[in-house]
Amino acid sequence: MFRKALLCLSLVSLVGCNDDDKIETTPTTPEYQLPKILVIGHRGASALRPEHTLASYQEAIDDGADFIEPDLVSTKDGVLVTRHENEIGGTTNISTLTQFADRKTTKNIDGVNLTGWFTEDLTLNELQQVKARERIPEFRPANTAYNDLYSIPTLEQVIELAEANYKKTGKIIGLYIETKHPTYFKNRNLAMEDTLLKTLAKYQYTRDIAPIYLQSFEVSNLKYLKDQLDLHKTLKHAQIIQLYDAKTSRPADFVESGVSKTYGDLATAQSLKDVAKYANGVGPSKNYILNFNTDGSVQTTSFISDAHAAGLKVHPYTFRPENNFLPQPLKCSDKPAERCPTGALKEFEAYFKAGVDGVFTDDPALGRQAVTNFEKTTK
């Protein structure tokens, strides 16, 4: 009880104390050691289940992921829920629900006009009436069998899922959390950062046990999160990851504040050293690292060596098993939706040889197989 009281006192005004006595044990090892190459379940196991559902996250855990990745957006009443975008017309059945027909609208999200239904226009209670659907049925038709079965999870439900797995199996699953469109939400009085930190500090699992990575395509909110983590020190294993979009694009907070730097500008050797002042790692798209030639050979850039020289881990995205998403020389056929495990494994191997520290993958089972194969050949 004395230790618990000290924990509560350390949370200061940012975090409220709770009665979380669900976990009575700590890992058997003195400190949890992360694997050399992380398998990150991108939106769960989204190649096998509709993304950002508890079923997708559970499948990722069952298939050997080290981390599961929830993307966060906000509801109208400020609850953090997991969706890749705040526009949910393409990932749910909301377009079929007559009670929400009048919520369809057009908005400008980070410079792009989108028409549909938006989480910030729905309370959590309303959102719970909506069911998830497969986002890309043209490439993953088998996933449509799970349409309309699963609700949209809250961040707390995802934490509780990972916690329950830990209690059952003893395996620690990290949470690799992305705040989506943070400037957009902040400008609508729905800033996510403090709510995110408070929620993570509420649970012993995310506070003291599991590795927590906080990622964003923007910069200012990551610096804020870093400052809060340093100030309050309530999350024992939290790290910051800077994501990289297309090289010619700019972070949305840079656009708003008039900063002209692009993601490509942030990828130089010197800029990576600057990123390392607030981040522990970087999440670039795959083409920052290497590209495949038509004969299957690869051209590798200096990005990994530059990032490592700055002390940053490198976790590229996104590794997908269907022909449509594989480099041309690795495709199994000209059928876009066909799964191609052999090509996917070759792609993983190329990036492992290049020196990545982890991979975002829609199919963690293939990612785990690739890591196992690679480790056998490099012993």
Automatic annotation (TrEMBL):
Domain GP-PDE: 37-371
EC number: 3.1.4.46
Any one GO MF annotation of this record: glycerophosphodiester phosphodiesterase activity
Catalytic activity: a sn-glycero-3-phosphodiester + H2O = an alcohol + sn-glycerol 3-phosphate + H(+)
Leading EC class: hydrolase
UniProt keyword list: Glycerol metabolism, Hydrolase, Signal
Domain of life, per lineage: Bacteria
InterPro entries, alphabetized: GP_PDE_dom, PLC-like_Pdiesterase_TIM-brl
One of the protein's GO biological processes: glycerol metabolic process
PROSITE patterns, per database record: GP_PDE, PROKAR_LIPOPROTEIN
Coiled-coil segments: none
A Pfam family matched in the record: GDPD
Alphabetized Gene3D superfamilies for the sequence: Phosphatidylinositol (PI) phosphodiesterase
Cellular component annotations (GO), alphabetically ordered: periplasmic space
Family: Belongs to the glycerophosphoryl diester phosphodiesterase family.
Stated name of the protein: glycerophosphodiester phosphodiesterase
Species in which this protein is naturally found: Acinetobacter seifertii
